[in-house]
Design goal:
This protein has about 240 residues and is an all-beta fold. It folds into two domains: about 90 residues, Thrombin, subunit H (Beta Barrel); about 130 residues, Beta Barrel (Thrombin, subunit H). It has one helix and 13 strands. The radius of gyration is 16 Å and the shape is globular. The relative contact order is 0.23.
Length: about 240
């Protein structure tokens, strides 16, 4: 997350880190949506073997005292059948995947699921939602960015589809099954970045008893992450049927 702030430890208890075994290091983010399921991006699995860890704040868990980290083996990955980015790298639609855990998650104060939005719902423009992740903080454009030692967050306002699909913005790369969120003025720019992929864009329902819903999955953005009129783009969760 570029130009974000450190999250309060365990304030986003559904945040997962998808860890590559080389040795185990952070590769992508994800959201716990059920005791056995993690929601993430399809492009995170091109290809790899993973384990899922929850309850982390610092990437080095020895810095979390006491540690709330729990890690789980994966026994199934379901990528959307319409995800064709490997065959056509100009098309990153349907960038959504479900990861099945080999055993149910032990729910704690630090580990709990996020709600899914109602099918078809579109978050109004201007709504402030939060992206979270351990991704690149500097926007260095490196293929292998430096992973943040701590979980970061940034509040990003939703940008309506009509604006974000203009030629100066994302033009025909954008699809109705995507969400744009971020700032348009160069001195305000905040964004998701490499290493945040697959992580959540969480929006509060508001009201007297607000709940958090995962409306977006970090999908793509500008090279270097920060660029005028190139806000972060997320897969819109409500555009898909998730059982």
């Amino acid at each position: 997350v570029v130009n974000g702030v450190e999250a309060i430890p365990h304030s986003w208890p559904w945040q997962a880190t998808l860890m590559l075994p080389i040795p185990y290091m952070h590769g992508c983010g994800g959201s716990l949506i059920h005791e056995e399921w993690i929601l993430t991006a399809a492009h995170c699995f091109i290809p790899s073997f993973w384990r899922m860890c929850l309850g982390k704040h610092h990437m080095n868990s020895s810095m979390d005292v006491p540690s709330a980290e729990e890690c789980y083996k994966v026994d199934g990955i379901i990528r959307h059948a319409g995800f064709v980015y490997e065959q056509d790298n100009t098309d990153i639609t349907n960038d959504i995947a479900l990861v099945h855990l080999a055993e149910p998650v032990n729910m704690t104060r630090e580990i709990s699921p996020v709600c899914l939005p109602k099918p078809g719902i579109v978050v109004p423009a201007g709504t402030s939602c939060f992206v979270t992740g351990w991704g690149d903080e500097k926007g260095t454009s490196n293929l292998f960015p430096v992973v943040s030692e701590k979980l970061n967050q940034a509040a990003l306002p939703i940008i309506d589809f009509q604006t974000c699909s203009k030629p100066a913005y994302w033009w025909d790369t954008l699809r109705p099954s995507m969400i744009c969120a971020g700032y348009e003025s160069p001195d305000e720019l905040k964004s998701a970045c490499q290493g945040d992929s697959g992580g959540p864009l969480a929006c509060s329902t508001g009201g007297s008893t607000p709940t958090w819903e995962v409306h977006g999955i970090v999908s793509f953005g500008a090279q270097g992450c920060i660029k005028d009129k190139k806000p972060s783009v997320f897969t819109r969760v409500s555009a898909f049927s998730i059982l």
